[in-house]
């Protein structure tokens, strides 16, 4: 029986690395290292941008009001549908919240999101989604006579909301580019597609996955105060007091009433005041579809980590003092976004002292032969990019903690980078400790931990909270509260 491979000690592994490559590694460390002082500077500026986004004038960070007004108490009950429209798949869930506090049962199905839909027409998109929902209902409730089922729709694209069951798309992301949708309400055509098919579903809440992550996590953990996504993109949500949101002051909401804010803070520092951008970050931004936007996201999100790595490798290839891949065809490496975050993950996870898996990876993916010394460069480069991403990602979290004076709390985190990238959490926790100056020897006061299913359970819970709020007589942020109350009078 072969036991698990152990990570050997790498002490002294640089002895066989040529001096020019050792110098290269030192130069990369100088380029990508982010000091404690810099993290604190970024975090303090982040607080100012969060506050600016809540004003009438606004700022780079949208700070979208969600009309999710409060945390669950664990006693929510009923059966709810959840729809998650991602970039690759469409997921439909049926979630039952039983009497037992903090528990749930879930049925779910996934449907592939055809690539052609992303650049097709709006009608084609909504019709496809409605067809998937119809298939789900017919499969799981064949022959049953159903009343209207409440739906929480996780629509993880920047949207402004005058009501929780309404949303105007600000801009497409995740590869979508459908004409005639940006600047318009997405709920009306979606509901029309359902009505055309006679599907017994009523959209009750349109949410962002970050808000859903916070609410789903808070359902089972009362210390949960922030929801965060560290994946293809980055974002966070937290609960603000309505009295601290100047841009909705005209609505005269009770000042102590809670309101979930979907920060959309990938746009932090679009003015380039504090983030330590390298020449590689500047290239990524310049060559992106939307230069000048999502500055923070382009430095920490999974979509860009592989591209950062690729650009550095190209730069080192062109450097006559380094000349990686000397004499080889690097045509594959010249293709933009040919590498993703998983490429870096696999390098960081290489368990062998001679980095043989890294050698094999370059051969398989890029048709390049690499030396042991070059592998040491790649290993350190992957560590530097991954570490910088995790450290910078905590500037947003620490800024929310500072703004809300959260000394101790939990952060529910989801996304491929958080869940799959090696060492992300310990590196992030170390950065938080540095930024927030926790006393030596104390446990982590702000703990970033794996989230519950925000796009499923979170969406269902927000639908449940919305209906409960209507029945309790609160009509804030609901288009037609009386109609909703009547429609769902059977739900407890």
TrEMBL record:
Determine if Kinase is one of this entry's keywords.
Answer: yes
Q: Which GO terms describe its molecular function?
A: ATP binding; D-glucose binding; fructokinase activity; glucokinase activity; mannokinase activity
- Start and end residues of each Hexokinase N-terminal domain: 25-219
| Family the entry assigns | Belongs to the hexokinase family.
In terms of superkingdom, the source organism counts as: Eukaryota
GO BP term, example: glucose metabolic process
Q: Give the reactions, separated by semicolons, that this protein catalyses.
A: a D-hexose + ATP = a D-hexose 6-phosphate + ADP + H(+); D-fructose + ATP = D-fructose 6-phosphate + ADP + H(+)
- The residue ranges of the Hexokinase C-terminal domain are 225-465
Name of the protein: Phosphotransferase
PROSITE patterns xref list: HEXOKINASE_1 (PS00378), HEXOKINASE_2 (PS51748)
């Amino acid at each position: 029986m072969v036991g698990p491979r152990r990570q050997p000690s790498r002490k002294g592994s640089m002895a066989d690395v040529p001096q020019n490559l050792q110098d290269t590694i030192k130069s990369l460390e100088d380029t990508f290292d982010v000091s404690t002082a810099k993290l604190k500077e970024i975090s303090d500026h982040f607080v100012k941008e969060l506050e600016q986004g809540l004003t009438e004038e606004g700022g780079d960070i949208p700070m979208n009001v969600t009309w999710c007004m409060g945390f669950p108490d664990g006693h929510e009950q009923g059966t709810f549908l959840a729809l998650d429209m991602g970039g690759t798949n469409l997921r439909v869930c049926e979630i039952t919240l039983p009497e037992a506090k903090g528990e749930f049962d879930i049925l779910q199905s996934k449907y592939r999101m055809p690539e052609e839909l992303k650049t097709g027409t709006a009608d084609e998109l909504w019709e496809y989604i409605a067809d998937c929902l119809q298939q789900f209902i017919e499969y799981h409730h064949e022959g049953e006579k159903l009343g209207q089922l409440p739906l929480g729709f996780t629509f993880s694209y920047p949207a402004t909301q005058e009501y929780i069951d309404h949303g105007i798309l600000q801009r497409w992301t995740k590869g979508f580019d459908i004409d005639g949708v940006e600047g318009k309400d997405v709920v009306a055509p979606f509901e029309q597609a359902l009505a055309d098919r006679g599907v017994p579903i009523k959209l009750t809440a349109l949410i962002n996955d970050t808000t859903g992550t916070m609410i789903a996590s808070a359902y089972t953990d009362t210390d949960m105060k922030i929801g965060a996504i560290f994946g293809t993109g980055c974002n966070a949500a937290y609960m603000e007091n309505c009295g601290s949101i100047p841009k909705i002051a005209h609505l005269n909401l009770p000042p102590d009433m809670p309101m979930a804010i979907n920060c959309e803070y990938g746009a932090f520092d679009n003015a380039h005041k504090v983030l330590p951008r390298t020449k590689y970050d500047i290239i990524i931004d310049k060559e992106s579809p939307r230069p000048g936007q999502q500055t923070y996201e382009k430095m920490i999100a999974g979509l860009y980590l592989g591209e950062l790595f690729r650009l550095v490798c190209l730069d080192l290839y062109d450097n006559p003092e380094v000349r990686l891949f000397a004499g080889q065809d690097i045509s594959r490496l010249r293709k933009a976004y040919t590498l993703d975050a998983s490429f870096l993950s696999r390098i960081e996870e290489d368990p062998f002292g001679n980095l043989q898996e890294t050698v094999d990876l370059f051969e398989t993916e890029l048709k390049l032969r690499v030396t042991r010394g070059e592998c040491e460069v790649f290993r350190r480069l992957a560590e530097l990019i991954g570490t910088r991403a995790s450290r910078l990602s905590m500037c947003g979290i620490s800024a929310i903690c500072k703004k809300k004076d959260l000394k101790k709390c939990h952060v529910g985190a989801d996304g491929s980078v958080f869940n799959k990238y090696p060492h992300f959490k310990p590196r992030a926790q170390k950065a938080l400790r540095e930024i927030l100056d926790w006393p030596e020897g104390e446990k982590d006061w702000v703990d970033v931990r794996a989230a519950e299913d925000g796009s499923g359970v979170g969406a269902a819970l927000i639908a449940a909270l919305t209906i409960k709020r209507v029945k309790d007589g609160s009509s804030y942020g609901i288009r037609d509260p009386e109609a909703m109350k009547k429609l769902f009078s059977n739900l407890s």
